[in-house]
Description:
Blueprint: H1 10-14, H2 17-22, H3 30-49, E1 56-59, H4 64-69, E2 83-87, H5 94-103, E3 110-114, E4 118-122, E5 129-134, E6 137-140
Parallel strand pairs: 3-5
Antiparallel strand pairs: 1-2, 2-4, 3-4, 5-6
Amino acid sequence: MTNLSAHFTLEEAVLSQTAARLGIPNDPDLNTVRNMKQAALGMELVRLELGGLPININSWYRSQDLNHAVGSKPTSDHPTGFAIDFTCPKYGSPEKIVRAIKASNIQYQQLIWEFASWVHISFNGMKRQTLIIDKQGTREFT
């Protein structure tokens, strides 16, 4: 196992059932791994904010081809290694997670409650933009 931080590994960060199913390589370069290490440190802060409970990673790094295959925007921070989609079931709902992170001092670029099912966070900057994305579109999370 290659640790990105105390609780997050490179192996879980690149794991993708879609990539495996479609035969799409999902191997980050060294610069992207550095970005992933920075994002992992951010995720350690998230984990602490959520009471130190385990975090389930749904999607972290996506190669450009994989990002395209899953229908994500070309401007996504997943191909740079800075974005993570996750849940923390023992803490509570994705909405509860977003509220906790938004109320914290954690520095993030974007925090998104997506389709009432998971949380997206990006550590590529400190904009602290908090959004909801669902069937109705994209709007500010209040």
